[in-house]
From TrEMBL:
Keyword tRNA processing: yes
Importin N-terminal domain mapped to chain residues: 33-100
Signal peptide positions (record): none
Keyword DNA damage recorded: no
Function as written in the Swiss-Prot or TrEMBL entry: tRNA nucleus export receptor which facilitates tRNA translocation across the nuclear pore complex. Involved in pre-tRNA splicing, probably by affecting the interaction of pre-tRNA with splicing endonuclease.
Species this protein is from: Choiromyces venosus 120613-1
BP GO terms, sorted: protein import into nucleus; tRNA processing
SMART domains per UniProt: IBN_N (SM00913)
Source superkingdom: Eukaryota
Transmembrane segments annotated in the record for this chain: none
A GO cellular component entry from the record: nucleus
Keywords: tRNA processing
Protein name: ARM repeat-containing protein
GO molecular function, one term: small GTPase binding
Length: 968
């Protein structure tokens, strides 16, 4: 195979291409080398060449790793290139290579083990897999390493069996032969290896192998052997710690069915609890990885046995206490998050009346947990101005971590009661006040001593707010009195302000506390800290939302306040304040709501026009777009209940502002942010006022049509869909209005067809999405008119044209439309809104399916194999199944013709026929589930085999009908 002087000419080009990839050459040379190697990997010649490289002593480790990786891909995807009788020789060659590499490079050895496992899965006639591999690789210590790695990899490869071209039946049978039938023998081999290496350092490979077979070997069988001693002793080994932890945690997961695993748990529990002293030892030794491992062990044991803790709290109390100890000792907050899910899972049981006894007996641990969490909530003791000393990543991590701890505090509230949790937080505040308040009431230069100890319980109060009932009378009155008296410090005021905002439902039922709280919040707008002002805006929003009825007589003062701060607030905070005052307007009596709305919105509209008149650059135009949202907030919030037959005062008011928005649209119709904001305002009006919008509908529809014609912005189609939905109810809308709305839909369709005459779908994916979302509404609310209209043909043409897209959202919109409209080809309608599905509608859909079904099938199958994102798979399958239901025999022919268009060499005739035969059997029995899984398995396999990130092909060549043409 090789000459004495160097590598054979047989693989010299491959080595040269690899050297180019790793060398300092230009991009074009590397691209050509990549293309050469990818073509080589798919070629039949690669089988011989990679074997030659692997057998060569001069090829180099990197080339040999490339060869092993290539061989893995060939066995997975290109095994059809070899005669069936050559597979035994391939097996023997792999075994020989493994013997050669038993003491060589581990990555190469791993790839070869994967090769052998993948071949074992596909070589159905190879029945003595385990015994042959053991006899070949189990003869010495070095070979045993290969054997353990193969045994570890085999279950993983079988579990991922859909990577290879096997039917469901073949995969199920082979899984049983390779795994289930060999479980006892593998356990015997592992025990034998453990006994033969007793006294040696724990072998991570042995533990990983045990872990890999846990799904096949009963846990009780494993823990009844010396293997459990090996796993536990490995926790003391740095090299074996991680696999040992992973293996133990998987053992726990296998015992989640506690009633069926009682004997296993009885053996495991004392073994686990004997490890508890190791927690403190790891902390004292500052061994973070070991501490993390033990925390994970105890937490996952608790999660697995949580129902037993609830049933027998005293028997398992020590486990709960150990998990709490892990949380308490984590001074750097590195591993505490591993315990969070356990506290949540246990809480879910303890709150049930059935487990009230367990709640009582474990309540003290949850009480300790509150203290632990509050202690961990403390900011680090860095500089006053920046506790994180400029480390923004650490600051963001801390913020996220605090919110997770807040969830644990909520769990504690449910277990031990809100009063107990509030009392602990309040006690912390009192302790701080007694110790520091005298010296900190008037801090010098904003310095507050040990402010972290005050801010942490404040944050805990905010975190627990959702769990505190609005009628709480024991602790909250004292807390609310204290909050407005706290010393001035940016983070303390920020936290206290947010606490007040979180408890506004409580304040609404305790109005005596409203005025001091509101004064405290509004003073925050004058604060130098932007964070405090932002918190004040958020809190004011919640105050107005929940206490709006208490503020109805203060609308004038609120308006004055609003006008004072509106010009100084950042836009996000202005939105929140606007939302708040809008709720106060919404709380006004019906006879006063018009005047209240006018009081706030007319100045906004005036400023809006001023901004529109001076918006000469993109920045000013974006500010204009942002300001439009203020009106939208009022539309969204202020929608009073109006008795039937009564003119909605909101329509009277907004009818005067519709022309203002229309003028802004006319002037900025080519600037998408303005168009989108105005469209959102229109859509919000439709959602808020529904059929009361009828008087404004003609001018609104005209504006949407003309603006879409001018701008081709999809947002106008988005609003059109809202019109379709809101004016669809036959009980609320007369037929003349429904007809006008449908005509409006037709106009927008015609505008879209004209656009598609000049633009490819790939140039306007967002507009495509909005158009087909609109059509989904059209099919939902006007199915018969749309299906029997002249629009159906060009709509299908547009859908075919749009299936060339590669973005998720527009593709899903197209596919959902196709699925919905094809559903009307059945005898029964897909929606209960229509009791019957007329014959002419069914025939029209079936005719369209027969006419366009081949192209639809080709384009969807092409997309699934080459370009569609994964999120498109369910809807793609749904369309294909709809076609199967309407035209089963033609669909099978379409599938066959599509496979014939695939590039030469991408799929063998045998594989194609196997796939088609599976489909034929499923279609004949109308087994739609099997059709769906067969399609997904085949397209996933094809994609993994033939498509790489650098593949230039995005679909099957030779598919016609992608060009759109519409003539009126």
């Amino acid at each position: 195979m090789t000459s004495p002087n160097g590598p054979s000419d047989q693989f010299a080009p491959v080595l040269a291409a690899l050297a180019t990839m790793q060398g300092n050459v230009d991009r074009e040379q590397k691209y050509q080398a990549t293309q050469f190697l990818e073509h080589f990997q798919k070629s039949p010649e690669a089988w011989t060449v990679v074997h030659a490289i692997l057998q060569s002593e001069n090829a180099g480790v990197e080339a040999q790793l490339f060869a092993a990786t290539t061989l893995k891909g060939k066995i997975t995807y290109d095994i059809h290139q070899l005669p069936r009788d050559a597979l035994v020789d391939l097996r023997n060659s792999l075994l020989s290579l493994l013997v050669s590499y038993r003491s060589g490079s581990r990555p190469i050895r791993t790839q070869l083990c994967v090769c052998l496992a993948s071949l074992a899965l596909q070589l159905l006639e190879w029945k003595d897999v385990i015994s042959l591999v053991v006899s070949t690789l189990g003869n010495d210590v070095e070979s045993s390493v290969c054997l353990l790695e193969f045994l570890k990899i085999l279950p993983e490869e079988v579990t991922e069996g859909r990577k290879v071209s096997l039917t469901e039946e073949e995969l199920e049978t082979r899984s049983r032969e390779l795994l289930t039938d060999n479980a006892t023998e593998v356990l015997r081999l592992l025990v034998q290896y453990a006994q033969s290496t007793a006294g040696s350092p724990p072998n991570p490979a042995l533990i990983s192998c045990v872990n890999s077979w846990l799904r096949e070997i009963p846990v009780l069988d494993v823990i009844g052997t010396p293997l459990i001693d090996v796993i536990i002793s490995a926790l003391s080994s740095d090299a074996a710690l991680d696999p040992a932890v992973e293996c133990l945690c998987n053992i726990f997961r296998e015992t989640r069915e506690v009633d069926a695993s009682q004997e296993a748990i009885r053996i495991l529990y004392p073994r686990v609890m004997n490890l508890r002293p190791k927690i403190r030892e790891a902390v004292e030794a500052e061994d973070l990885e070991t501490f993390r491992g033990y925390t994970r062990i105890f937490s996952e044991a608790g999660e697995a046995w949580v129902v037993l803790i609830a049933r027998m709290p005293m028997d398992f109390r020590e486990l709960v206490s150990a998990i709490a100890e892990c949380a308490a000792l984590d001074s750097e907050r590195d591993v505490i998050s591993l315990t969070f899910n356990f506290w949540y899972e246990l809480k879910n049981y303890l709150v049930l009346e059935k487990y009230i006894e367990a709640r009582v007996k474990i309540a003290d641990i949850y009480s300790q947990l509150v203290d632990i969490m509050i202690r961990h909530l403390h900011y680090p003791e860095g500089s006053e101005a920046d506790p994180f000393d400029g480390d923004r990543e650490a600051e963001e991590k801390f913020r996220e971590f605090r919110h997770s701890m807040g969830d644990v505090l909520k769990d504690c509230c449910e277990v031990i009661g809100s009063a107990a949790c509030l009392g602990k937080a309040y006690s912390e505040i009192q302790t701080w006040m007694q110790r520091y308040a005298t010296s900190s009431r008037k801090p010098v230069n904003g310095q507050v001593e040990n402010w972290q100890s005050l801010e942490a319980p404040l944050f805990s109060l905010r975190a627990m707010g959702r769990m505190i009932p609005a009628d709480e009378e024991q602790v909250l009155p004292q807390i609310m009195t204290s909050l407005v008296q706290l010393p001035e410090h940016d983070k303390v005021r920020f936290a206290a302000t947010l606490v007040l905002g979180r408890y506004t439902e409580w304040t609404s039922k305790h109005p005596a506390y409203l005025e001091p709280q509101l004064n405290y919040i509004t003073r925050g707008f004058e604060h130098n800290s932007k964070d405090v002002a932002r918190a004040a805006a958020m809190a004011l929003k919640f105050f107005c939302q929940d206490c709006g009825k208490l503020l109805v007589d203060h609308v004038g003062q609120l308006h004055n306040f609003y006008e004072q701060v509106a010009g100084d607030l950042p836009i996000a905070s202005l939105y929140e304040v606007t939302d708040g005052v809008a709720h106060v307007v919404a709380a006004q009596p019906l006879d006063k709501i018009y005047d209240a709305l006018r009081l706030f919105c007319e100045p906004i509209a005036k400023r809006l026009m001023e901004k529109a008149n001076s918006a000469n650059d993109d920045k000013a135009k974006c500010e204009l777009a942002d300001y439009i949202q203020l009106l939208t907030i009022f539309v969204q919030v202020v929608h009073p209940h109006v008795p039937p037959g009564t003119l909605n005062p909101m329509i009277r008011f907004w009818s005067g502002l519709i022309p203002v928005l229309g003028t802004i649209l006319d002037n900025f119709v080519q600037f998408s942010p303005v168009c989108e904001r105005v469209s959102r305002c229109y859509r919000t009006m439709l959602v808020s006022y529904r059929t009361d919008m009828l008087p404004l509908l003609p001018q609104l529809a005209e504006k949407l049509v003309t603006c879409f014609q001018k701008s081709h912005q999809g947002c106008f189609l988005w609003v059109t869909g809202a019109v379709i939905r809101e004016f669809a109810d036959e009980e609320l809308v007369d037929e003349a209005t429904r007809t006008s709305v449908y005509q409006f839909l037709e106009q927008q369709c015609l505008n879209m067809f004209r656009l598609l005459n000049t633009k490819a779908a790939t140039e306007i994916p967002d507009v495509i999405e909005d158009f087909f979302r609109l059509l989904v509404d059209g099919v939902m609310f006007h199915p018969y008119k749309l299906i029997l209209s002249n629009l159906l043909q060009p709509i299908f043409e547009a859908s075919l044209h749009s299936l060339s897209l590669e973005q998720v959202d527009p593709l899903v919109a197209v596919l959902q439309f196709l699925r919905d409209v094809l559903a009307y080809g059945r005898s029964s309608p897909p929606t209960s809104a229509y009791p019957d599905n007329p014959k002419e509608v069914q025939e029209a859909v079936k005719a369209m399916a027969l006419s366009k079904g081949e192209l639809i099938t080709q384009k969807i199958l092409s997309g699934l194999m080459y370009s569609f994102p994964r999120d498109c798979v369910p809807d793609s399958s749904g369309v294909l199944l709809a076609l199967v239901e309407l035209c089963p025999e033609p669909w099978l022919q379409w599938m066959k013709q599509t496979l014939e268009l695939l590039p030469a060499g991408s799929i063998s005739p045998t594989e194609a026929q196997k796939f088609l035969s599976t489909l034929e059997g499923a279609v004949s029995t109308r087994d739609f589930k099997k059709i769906r899984y067969s399609l997904q398995d085949f397209t996933n396999w094809y994609r993994r085999k033939n498509v790489t990130p650098r593949t230039a092909i995005t679909g099957i060549e030779g598919i016609e009908g992608s060009r759109f043409s519409f003539s009126e």
